[in-house]
Amino acid sequence: MTDAETLGVTAARLLAGFDCCPIEPGLTDAEFARVEAEHGISFTDDHRAFLAAGLPVDPPGADRARWPDWRSGPADDLRHLITFEADLLADAVRDGHWDDAWGPRPPSAESAVAVFRTFLAGAAPIVPIYSHRYVAGRPGTFGNPVLSMYGFDIIYYGADLPTYLVNEFGGGDLTFPAGWEPEPPAFWGRYL
Predict the structure, then answer these.
(1) Which of 28, 131, 144, 160 is least enclosed by beta carbons within 10 angstroms?
(2) Which one, of 123, 138, 132, 128, lies nearest residue 45 by Cα?
(3) Angle formed by the axes of helices 161-169 and 45-53, to 10°?
């Protein structure tokens, strides 16, 4: 087993131990290929191993989607989860938010959003894990920090998938490994 697979399987075992949600059989390679092609995303290697070990889903009757149902969720719901953060940021820019690092603000709101989206294109890709928690990274990577993101309010919520799950479902305060100093993800790191 690779280091990425070990990390993903460890995270899956932790989640199962928290007994916080139903866990369906893991995604197959064909399902990963379909999801990535349909939604223009790529999973990090440990996130892929996590979802291959078991697919967490919302309990029956849940009032809102928190876990992305990568297997059978409605395409519009998945698209909303995937684009939620970028759309929220674009709305903030449209409403007047501007970062001096982007240069002078264009005169129209839509021009400002267009400039913002050019900067966003250089961001580390984010993929939803649960609610407004995302992992930033590219395929071929693993052990990336998990971010809690709501607009420009962004914090680390886990050093990696296993520590994220402990922080989310373990019932204690946010904890991180001693001496942990992550490399901030491209673009998003500016707002941490």
Answers:
(1) 28
(2) 138
(3) 60
- List pLDDT tens digits, range 89-128: 999 999 999 999 999 999 999 999 999 999 999 998 999 9
The edge-to-edge listing of strands for the beta sheet with 146-150 is: 126-130, 133-136, 146-150, 153-158
Contact (Cβ atoms closer than 8 angstroms) between residue 47 and residue 8: yes
Euclidean distance between CA atoms 73 and 127, whole angstroms: 15
- d(CA 105, CA 127) in angstroms, rounded, equals 29
pTM: 0.93
Is residue 156 within 8 A of residue 145, CB to CB? The reply is: yes
| Chain segment 14-62, per-residue pLDDT in tens | 999 999 999 999 999 999 999 999 999 999 999 999 999 999 999 988 8
| Max CA pair span of the chain | 54
**Cα(114)–Cα(133) distance, rounded to whole angstroms?**
25
